[in-house]
Amino acid sequence: MPAARESLLDAAYSALTGRPWSAVRMVDVAAAAGVSRQTLYNEFGSKDGFARALVRREADGYLAGVERVLTTPADPRERLTAAAEWTVSAARGNVLVKAMLTGCWSERLPSPTLSAVPSSNAVPAQRRADGPLPSPGDFVAIVRDRAAILLSAPGTPRGDTAELARACELVLRLALSCVAAPPDRGGVAELVRGALPRQPA
User: Distance between CA 56 and CA 178 in Å, rounded?
Assistant: First the structure.
């Protein structure tokens, strides 16, 4: 039931903007999504399973955005700058993305364990959500490695690829610092361009 699943996750995220996760009732989320509470439990198994699915979806959305900006037809430096801007924008606009990227989970948010949990759910999407969730360090590694692959030219020497990966990690960590302490003027793009005076690839 992909449509019902997405509707339930949308309803849960909307509920989370108005109250802490501990006060979000599954019966209210199901009603807001236009499905029965039993459908919710059939899909997610439990409130914790629901929380894991919500966090997984927001993580996937952030990573899809990174992929999108890194594959635009621009030079590597501008694509890295766009990835940094997307990271800051996604974290500012989505409390779950911010918590995942920084590791700072407030008491208002669901905070599922990062390790995998036993799952007997027949729904493939939920079995994936019940797997390990990325930690802040995992996000850095995932984005760094993907950026290095997408930005390196075919046949790039190994040493150049390692240097590119370091540049990608620097940019992501710079973006994460801007999530915690937003820059006064010029924004993240100016900081990234200053940190990468030469083409990173």
Answer: 23
62 within 8 A of 167, measured Cβ to Cβ:
no
Instruction: Give the range among 20-29, 30-39, 55-64, 106-115 with minimum mean pLDDT.
Output: 106-115
pLDDT digits (tens, 9 = 90+) for 84-119: 999 999 999 999 999 999 999 999 999 888 888 888
Residue 22 CA to chain centroid, in angstroms? 22
Residue 168 contacts residue 150 (beta carbons within 8 Å): no
CA distance 126 to 119: 8
In the chain, what are the domain boundaries? 55-121+133-195
| Residues 179, 87 contacting (CB under 8 angstroms) | yes
CA 151/CA 165 separation, integer angstroms: 9
Arithmetic mean of pLDDT over the chain: 89
DSSP state for residue 22 in the 8-state scheme: G
| Tokens standing for residue 35 | 């499905």
